[in-house]
Amino acid sequence: MESIAKRVMKKNKALRLVLLFVSIILSAVIYNIFLLPLSLVTGGSSGIATITYYLFDIDPAIMILLISVATALIGLMYLGYRKTIGSIIASILYPLMVQLTLPLSHLLNPSEVDILLMVIFAGVLSGVANGLMYRTGYNMGGFSTISQILYEHKKISVAKSTLVLNVIVVLLGSFFFGATNALYAIILLYITSLVMDRVLLGISNNKAFYIITDKDSEVKEYIIKTLGHDTTTFEVKGGFLEKNRKVMLTVIPSREYYKVTEGIKAIDKDAFFLVTDSYQVEGGK
What is 206-278's CATH topology? Predict the structure, then answer.
């Protein structure tokens, strides 16, 4: 399995490094144009840098670099070189780009622009930047390294530890800059997560249907012969009655969603079916 992981990380390495560089530049521009002038604390090392900048006049790039170097060293101790090298690249490049793009912090005057509009725009751009970052397989270092260590040694999920760390930083920001700034930060984070999912997964062009019905042969015939799509059937056991049932799986284009749902209900009004987005479909005939 480890050899597979190595092959995955080597695939399209040049393109991934280019995307990593683009995402880092974009993140630095967003920080200097939107987050720093608005004193928005959205978590991570950038959030800490914003707090220390306004409280102690410490250069944000220096603070981000200090945090990144410290977490990278901890990562080397607990994760090893192979799992830390990706974050080390971003740990050096990101504060450098923050310093180089610092003059852009005067590009917009918060008193002359609608703050909510700036927050929305920053959230969209941050979602694009983060989505590009995660598509490369690398990360920004900093608190992301801490989350990875907690997962490796304490089995605490990365999502949970990242959320807790960011919440702590956002709460610190609310303490120093007020609840209004914290609310704007939460809005920005929410928009960022939505856009990031779209960048990572794309827009769902297909729907996956899981269907349980007593008229499985009729439903299968409708899907295969009428709509022209294939199905897969597998056995399951119900949790409550522990009764063996058949589940039919089919993936259809989103534009045919109505035909499938209404067709199933027309054949068996008591049919149970679950519909999920299907972002990638490969293989099969």
Answer: Alpha-Beta Plaits (3.30.70)
Q: What is the pLDDT of residues 70-129, one digit of tens each?
A: 998 888 888 787 767 767 888 889 999 999 999 998 888 877 888 899 999 999 999 898
pTM of structure: 0.74
Q: Report CA torsion sign: 38, 43, 46, 49.
A: positive
Distance, in Å, from the CA atom of 245 to the CA atom of 199, rounded to the nearest integer, reads: 37
Identify the DSSP state of 105. G
Which tokens belong to 155?
Answer: 């089995």
E strand or H helix at 170, and its extent?
helix 158-177
Give the start-end residues of each E strand in the chain.
206-212, 232-237, 244-253, 272-278
Rounded CA-CA distance 252/277 in Å is 10
- Which is it for strands 272-278 and 206-212: parallel, antiparallel or unpaired? antiparallel
Domain with CATH 3.30.70.120 in the chain: 206-278
Amino acid letter at 160? K
pLDDT tens sequence across 186-221: 999 889 888 887 787 676 778 899 999 888 889 998
Structure-token pair, residue 125: 């751009």
> What is the rounded CA–CA span in Å between residue 285 and residue 278?
17
Angle subtended at Cα 96 by Cα 110 and Cα 159, rounded to the nearest 5 degrees: 75
Give CB contacts under 8 A, 24+ apart, made by 171-179: 172/41, 172/47, 172/48, 172/51, 173/39, 173/40, 173/41, 173/47, 173/50, 173/51, 174/41, 176/51, 176/54, 176/55, 177/39, 177/41, 177/54
Query: d(Cα 147, Cα 149) in Å, to the nearest integer?
Result: 5
